[in-house]
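ok new one. same drill as before - structure tokens go in, u give me an amino acid for every spot. 178 of them this time. try not to just spam alanines like last time pls lmao
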């Protein structure tokens, strides 16, 4: 989902006219549904293949996940955010929803910092298994999953003298486009 959000924001900044006039209205919902479905398929495969004691097939499933993560999702996310950053720096005269871009940047940054090590460790487990390192990577992945709500609240309440209102108000403030 982070990759889809990053690519969609990049396309929205690069071709705003096309996005407003010609982009299919259900494209975001369709992509999110497709990605959630893909995630459910892979989670089911990992559960049924790896937890049922089929090590040969488990390795294939985990290698496919690592390949998709490193060769498809992560490069697209990094590339779209770099393009977005360069485009926004070049066109500083235009007004952009800074909070939304801050949220996207921080979420991607924390994903790269805390989420990627688990995928690297799963890939390295094919060659050398280190239990201690794997547990640290699981901890980092948990920090990554827990960081998103904190990022939303902090960015949503940034600039206010103190935190006021509900979490719903803060989230609305973060994701509104003016």
């Amino acid at each position: 989902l982070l990759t889809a959000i990053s690519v969609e924001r990049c396309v929205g900044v690069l071709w705003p006219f096309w996005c407003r006039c010609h982009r299919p209205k259900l494209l975001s919902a369709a992509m999110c549904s497709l990605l959630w479905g893909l995630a459910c398929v892979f989670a089911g495969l990992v559960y049924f293949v790896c937890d049922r004691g089929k090590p040969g097939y488990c390795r294939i499933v985990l290698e496919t996940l690592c390949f998709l993560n490193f060769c498809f999702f992560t490069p697209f996310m990094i590339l779209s955010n770099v393009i977005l950053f360069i485009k926004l720096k070049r066109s500083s005269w235009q007004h952009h929803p800074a909070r939304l871009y801050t949220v996207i940047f921080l979420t991607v940054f924390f994903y790269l910092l805390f989420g990627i090590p688990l995928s690297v460790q799963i890939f390295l487990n094919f060659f050398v298994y280190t239990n201690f390192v794997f547990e640290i990577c699981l901890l980092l992945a948990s920090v990554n999953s827990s960081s998103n709500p904190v990022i939303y609240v902090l960015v949503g309440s940034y600039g206010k003298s103190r935190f006021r209102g509900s979490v719903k108000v803060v989230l609305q403030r973060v994701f509104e486009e003016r």
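The longest helix spans residues 55-90. and btw DSSP finds seven helices and no strands in the chain.
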